[in-house]
Design the sequence.
């Protein structure tokens, strides 16, 4: 990434404490469009806190967030979504009793035109048509849209969730352990979708414990330990051993 | 014979659509139903069949059961369970419950009875809307406590049950009429005891069936025209046919003379009230944003929050709608009782309401449920009561029968959940 290029997402000196526990201290990094960044660290390294800060679930105690060169303050996850950041959490963020189509449009429903729309009536067919097209675009084939998410397998659910994130993200997608609990083939599907998102010029933050997946798909890896960034280098600079060593801090 | 013809003539239309179900022959429908049943998605078919079985059983034991007079009576008995059950569905969808709804209804009803009669003599519309405002306020209060203070709705509304019972006794006794107040005002009285004229009964029924069928057929046609999944023609035909048969039967029952000395026929207004609440609530749940959000929040509140939904606002809406619907149930209740007493069994009533919704198929765990469930479940409970009473059984058998049906329903719900839900 050339230095004159504007980062799509920049964090400056982010700190966050929960009571007396310091979850993040002075975290800074830049992320560019079309880049896949691995975010790794041991349990309690601050990965989840960092994701929650970027996606607006909570606000940092200190520090600044810039999206596309503009400083942002999130009051709710809705704000970060509006700024073009989509987050896919570890525990699926889908509503089990709604259909696939309804989940894809959750929080962004298309209303009917005219007075009915103003009363809150939804244009269900328009949403369903668009859902079919968009899911197809990211190479996800899902069972019929009449199905509720509770009737899908784990892999299918993840596919729907990622499809939703890719569909709506303008700038950044945060994927928290997207290949967890998935089989080898399904994991490869997920990695394929990540590459497809990169092609579209989206920046992907990929959080995972599965280091082979991280090394396979990312351009750059940021390692967190005890709430601090301990290394931020190109993926080609790491080996599995050095990455593991940096994460655990045993051979630095 | 007729259904087969329908499927034959229309199956060619379905060929163009990109869904395999449309090509299914009639014997595949049974297979489809079995899969749905195993997925916990069987809909209300088993419970409707159960209702028919009960009806046939009671009719063989007492020929009075299927008389037009008794069926109308049963519908009125059911309407109170149904409306209060629909009130509960709003909260059950969120995985919440309102144990006080029976007394919310009682208090609302008492306010209406007092304001139209005695020394107040308010016009009926003012009295009835005040009663509904009181019940909405009660619902909003529980909402504030549950959402604002993060208290469990079970406990808040359990306290509410005691509190409202106290308030009811206090309000009723302070009128100095010895603990009961009767209804003398026509509109309130007529909610249950007044009837549509036979002509308007038919207009109401035919209109409802026509609008529902038309909408279903049009929706299906548009969906298959846009290559979206649509229902197999046979199932659509069965649904329209079923509505038609039910409508004709209902019209015939309500419009037959059920009076002993003078002619008495037509559909009681209470049934119209049930129909209007059912239609309006179902519309909100299926077609609007708030409705969809209630399902989302009930299924996975965290996911809803992350999707940017103002979760607390919609939870509050559910509490308010429960209050409002309970209030309407209260108006029907006092009309049916022809007054209000300080000894009404609001606690038992609310348990029947919850049972109605659950028997119909609404889950206690949130996310899954329909207004229609309260209708079916309410009729099941009313049938048990009405039928056992006709057979001279007392409350002992009525309670036990209700217990068995409720247990059966909740077992099916639980088994279906295990069958359909894959580990998150």
Sequence:
């Amino acid at each position: 990434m050339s230095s004159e290029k504007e980062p799509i997402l920049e964090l400056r000196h982010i700190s966050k404490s929960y009571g007396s526990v310091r979850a993040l201290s002075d975290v800074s990094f830049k992320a560019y469009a079309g880049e896949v960044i691995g975010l790794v660290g041991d349990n309690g390294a601050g990965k989840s806190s960092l994701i929650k800060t970027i996606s607006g679930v909570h606000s940092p105690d200190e520090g600044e967030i810039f999206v596309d060169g503009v400083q942002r303050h999130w009051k709710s996850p809705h704000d970060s979504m509006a700024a073009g950041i989509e987050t896919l959490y570890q525990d699926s963020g889908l509503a089990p009793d709604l259909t696939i189509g309804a989940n894809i449009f959750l929080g962004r429903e298309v209303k009917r035109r005219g007075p009915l729309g103003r009363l809150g009536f939804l244009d269900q067919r328009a949403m369903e048509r668009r859902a079919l097209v968009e899911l197809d675009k990211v190479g996800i084939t899902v069972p019929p849209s009449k199905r509720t998410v509770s009737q899908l397998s784990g892999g299918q659910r993840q596919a729907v969730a990622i499809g939703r994130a890719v569909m709506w993200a303008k700038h950044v997608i945060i994927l928290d352990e997207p290949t967890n609990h998935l089989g080898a083939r399904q994991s490869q599907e997920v990695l394929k979708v990540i590459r497809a998102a990169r092609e579209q010029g989206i920046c992907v933050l990929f959080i995972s414990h599965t280091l082979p997946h991280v090394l396979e798909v990312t351009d750059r890896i940021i390692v967190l330990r005890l709430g601090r960034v301990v290394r931020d280098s190109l993926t080609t600079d790491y080996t599995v051993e050095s990455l593991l060593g940096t994460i655990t801090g045993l051979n630095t | 014979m007729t259904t087969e013809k329908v499927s034959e003539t229309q199956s060619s239309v379905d060929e163009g659509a990109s869904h395999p179900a449309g090509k299914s022959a009639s014997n595949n429908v049974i297979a489809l139903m079995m899969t749905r049943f195993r997925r916990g998605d069987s809909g209300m078919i088993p419970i409707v069949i159960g209702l028919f079985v009960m009806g046939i059983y009671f009719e063989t034991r007492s020929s009075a059961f299927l008389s037009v007079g008794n069926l109308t009576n049963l519908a009125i008995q059911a309407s109170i369970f149904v409306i209060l059950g629909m009130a509960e569905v709003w909260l059950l969808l969120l995985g919440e419950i309102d144990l006080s709804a029976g007394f919310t209804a009682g208090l609302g009803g008492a306010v209406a009875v007092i304001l139209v009669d005695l020394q107040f003599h308010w016009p009926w519309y003012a009295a009835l809307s005040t009663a509904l405002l009181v019940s909405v306020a009660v619902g909003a209060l529980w909402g504030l406590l549950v959402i604002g203070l993060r208290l469990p709705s079970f406990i808040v509304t359990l306290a509410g049950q005691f509190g409202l019972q106290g308030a009811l006794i206090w309000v009723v006794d302070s009128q100095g009429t010895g603990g009961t107040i009767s209804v003398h005002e026509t509109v309130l009285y007529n909610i249950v005891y007044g009837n549509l004229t036979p002509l308007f009964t038919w207009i109401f029924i035919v209109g409802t069936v026509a609008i529902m069928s038309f909408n279903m057929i049009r929706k299906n046609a548009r969906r298959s025209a846009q290559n979206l999944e649509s229902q197999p023609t046979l199932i659509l035909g069965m649904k329209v046919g079923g509505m038609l048969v039910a409508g004709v039967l209902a019209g015939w029952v309500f419009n037959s003379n059920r009076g002993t000395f003078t002619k008495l026929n037509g559909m009681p207004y209470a049934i119209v009230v049930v129909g209007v609440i059912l239609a309006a609530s179902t519309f909100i749940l299926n077609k609007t944003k708030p409705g969809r959000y209630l399902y989302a929040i009930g299924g996975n509140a965290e996911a809803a929050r992350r999707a940017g939904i103002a979760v607390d606002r919609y939870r509050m809406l559910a509490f308010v709608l429960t209050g409002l619907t309970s209030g309407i149930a209260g108006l029907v209740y006092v009309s049916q009782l022809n007054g209000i007493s300080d000894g009404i069994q609001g606690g038992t009533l609310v348990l029947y309401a919850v049972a109605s919704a659950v028997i119909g198929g609404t889950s206690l765990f949130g996310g899954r449920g329909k207004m229609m469930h309260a209708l079916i479940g309410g009729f099941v409970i009313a049938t048990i009561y009405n039928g056992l009473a006709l057979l001279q059984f007392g409350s002992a058998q009525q309670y036990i029968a209700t217990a068995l049906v409720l247990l059966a329903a909740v077992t099916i719900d639980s088994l279906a959940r295990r069958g359909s839900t894959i580990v998150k």
The beta strands of chain A are 9-18, 21-31, 36-41, 62-67, 70-72, 85-88, 172-176, 203-207, 220-225, 228-234. The interface with chain B takes residues 55, 57, 76-78, 81, 87, 89, 91-98, 102, 106-109, 111, 119-122, 124-125, 128-129, 132, 144-146, 150-154 of chain A (CB under 8 Å). The CA atoms of residues 27 and 48 of chain A lie 13 Å apart. The longest strand of chain A covers residues 21-31.
